[in-house]
Design a protein that fits this description.
Order of helices and strands: HEEEHEEHHEHHHH
Oligomer: single chain
CATH class of the largest domain: Mainly Beta
Number of domains: 2
Largest sheet: 6 strands, antiparallel, barrel
């Protein structure tokens, strides 16, 4: 399989994304993740679909009983690299949950029946992951501030689903919680990297950015505590409630004071 994938990757890059054979005419991209254990870049050919300004990828693994390696990698590090046609860009990966995941996977199964067959072949829930371009590539031209709000809303939904799972004792609670923690950590890491440029462009926002940095540290502490509690098999409900309250205050403050400034920047 590794040799097969290598041939597809080589052909994709040589032809600007036009792959022949069994993938002729298919919507295919190259997804590079950071290995969860190795820390090394790993590139995989992945089928995709567009959903508005985001790109959806599907962890079908041809209906095999385990998730593809790239899915486990992006749970550990949500920042990925996407090669699509002749473009290469950084993206932020968010696994979708609940009704949204079910609806979008069903739509993909209607477009390409093989995906419906893959889900019938396995008892696992095949992941659907949304890729959000980090730099306005792939046809996305949303204002930066509006994009920040949309990412926050996605994290809000994801956390709400984890809290609902904690109350209901769902089997996939651990996986969902770790996915959310990874996504939130990746989002704040990206923000910390961007804050110096924002401060350079808007010096008057320095106090706001300092507060956000401090709050990132507090949130990181909540994430560590959650992961430790999960490993110990403890009840995470109360910790999730505290994190939700802390995070909503953080998001609201950031949106009130940063979004207007960010929307002045070019996409």
């Amino acid at each position: 399989m590794a040799a097969f994938n290598d041939r597809i990757i080589e052909e994709f890059r040589a032809t600007g994304g036009r792959v022949g054979g069994m993938f002729s005419g298919a919507d295919l991209l190259l997804l590079t993740t950071v290995g969860a254990r190795s820390g090394q870049p790993r590139t995989s050919p992945v089928g995709y679909a567009r959903d508005g300004g985001r790109i959806l990828v599907f962890g079908s693994n041809a209906g095999q009983p385990r998730h593809p390696d790239w899915y486990h990698n992006l749970l550990a590090n949500p920042q990925v690299t996407v090669e699509l046609d002749t473009e290469t860009f950084t993206a932020y990966a968010v696994p979708l949950r609940g009704e949204e995941r079910d609806r979008l996977y069903a739509e993909q199964g209607e477009r390409i029946p093989a995906y419906a067959e893959y889900q019938e072949q396995t008892s696992r829930v095949i992941p659907v992951v949304a890729l959000h371009a980090a730099d306005g590539a792939a046809g996305r031209a949303a204002a930066i501030g509006d994009e920040l709000v949309r990412i926050h809303d996605g994290l809000r939904r994801q956390l709400a689903e984890v809290r609902a799972g904690a109350r209901g004792g769902t089997v996939e609670l651990r996986e969902h919680c770790l996915a959310f923690c990874g996504a939130l950590h990746g989002h704040h890491a990206n923000e910390d990297g961007a804050f110096p440029q924002i401060e350079k462009r808007f010096p008057e926002l320095a106090p706001v950015l300092d507060r956000l940095r401090r709050e990132h540290v507090v949130v990181a502490g909540h994430i560590r505590a959650l992961r430790e509690l999960l490993e110990a098999g403890g009840d995470i409900g109360a910790d999730l409630d505290r994190l939700a309250q802390e995070l909503e205050t953080h998001f609201a403050y950031e949106e009130d004071l940063l979004v207007p400034a960010l929307n002045k920047l070019a996409p």
